[in-house]
Design goal:
- By secondary structure, this protein is an alpha/beta fold.
- Helix content is 32%, strand content 15%.
- It is built from twelve helices and nine strands.
- The strands form two sheets. It has a seven-stranded mixed sheet with strand order 3-2-1-4-5-7-6, sandwiched between helices. Strands 8-9 form a two-stranded antiparallel ribbon.
- Strand 1, helix 1 and strand 2 form a beta-alpha-beta unit.
- Helix 1 crosses helix 12.
Length: 355
């Protein structure tokens, strides 16, 4: 069994993907208490450090030296939303990859995988990409960096993220595009048609699966979890009722138009298309294109989880705001699995050569 450490783990999208590819995730680190508990509930056999990564005891980590094959993780990236190279360089949040690097440097796994927003490869005139490459190459890793779109790997969501895959002393490549398309309907068409405020944390399935993707998501689950519709205001419901399938705020009368910084505000998701990027505020139509394709409500935690490729037996815990963070900040497990299989295959090939 090949071992993995997951840093900045969140609820464990990367962990789940690597587990499904045959890896053993032996250690994870997550600073948020509620999210770390949700991680532990879904990964009971993984040792969880619920603390700031800067406070990790390296004496504790010494037990993992020589026994870890891969370190994965996605250092927080809020600072990259700022404009201007000076602000980027002044924001401490943009340098958390250095903490990730320190753990890799100390543990010395054969591989590492870092995930982040696409801007990490271009911001500051390429400064951050250069820093990352320089750090890891200085300790013997060869890197491949690409922006991957989850939709290109059979996930019903347009989600672009930067991935940096490193291997000690040798080159390894990130997976190539697969091109298998999955739509919103393929993903959530079998889930109960709830109205505003309806649903419960645990319920029975009401419909049979209608697609290969739905079958995959339901494979190990006998109940439906986290499928609760937001209780919208009467005004919000009235506004959504004015929007037909496939349409958005362009059909709203002037008195119903609201100011918003988000694109897709008050726009319905289109069943035949993939979802926009799932964020941490998908519970409200004013935060983006998160209005159900034909029901007068925003999507539920379970619907968002399906669009992120979390299987139905993966349960989200805590307050709703925490559950939305767990889903919205995660690496889609199915994409993580595709990358993990490339690493697994590379390990097996290396062992064959050694034999």
């Amino acid at each position: 069994m090949f071992n993995v450490i997951d840093l900045f783990s969140g609820v464990g999208g990367l962990s789940l993907g690597f587990q499904r590819a045959g890896f053993n995730v032996i250690l994870a680190n997550e600073i948020d208490n509620s999210i770390s508990k949700a991680y532990k509930n879904n990964h009971p056999d993984t040792n969880m450090i619920n603390d700031d990564i800067t406070k990790i005891d390296y004496n504790f980590l010494s037990a993992y030296k020589g026994s870890v094959d891969v370190i994965v993780g996605g250092p927080p990236c809020q600072g990259f939303s700022q404009k201007g190279s000076r602000k980027l360089l002044e924001d401490d949040r943009n340098f958390l990859f250095q903490q990730y690097y320190r753990v890799v440097e100390y543990v010395r796994p054969k591989y590492f995988l870092m995930e982040n927003v696409p801007n990490i490869l271009t911001s500051g005139g390429g400064y951050f990409k250069g820093q990352i490459f320089e750090l890891f190459e200085s300790i013997g890793y060869k890197l491949d960096a690409k922006i991957l779109n989850a939709f290109d790997f059979g996930i019903p969501q347009l989600r672009k993220r930067a991935f940096i895959l490193g291997k000690l002393n040798e080159h390894i490549s990130l997976p190539k595009v697969e091109g298998k398309s999955v739509s919103i309907h393929d993903a959530i068409g079998d889930l109960a048609f709830l109205n505003s405020g309806e649903g419960s944390e645990v319920q029975d399935y009401k419909f049979e699966p209608q697609s290969e993707y739905q079958l995959k998501m339901r494979k190990n689950s006998t109940n439906l979890y986290n499928h609760i519709a937001t209780r919208h205001s009467e005004l919000a419901i009235e506004r959504m009722k004015l929007i037909p399938k496939g349409m958005g705020k362009e059909v709203l009368p002037k008195e119903h138009l609201t100011k918003s910084i988000y694109s897709g505000t008050w726009c319905r998701m289109i069943e035949e298309e993939p979802s926009v990027t799932i964020t941490t505020r998908f519970d409200t139509p004013s935060s983006g294109k998160f209005t159900h394709p034909f029901l007068n409500r925003a999507i539920t935690v379970r619907e968002a989880a399906r669009l992120q490729s979390f299987p139905d037996d993966f349960i989200f815990y805590g307050a709703k705001t925490s559950q939305m963070k767990q889903v919205g900040n995660a690496v889609p497990p199915l994409l993580a699995e595709k990358i993990a299989r490339e690493v697994f295959k590379d390990i097996q090939n290396r062992e064959k050569i050694l034999l």
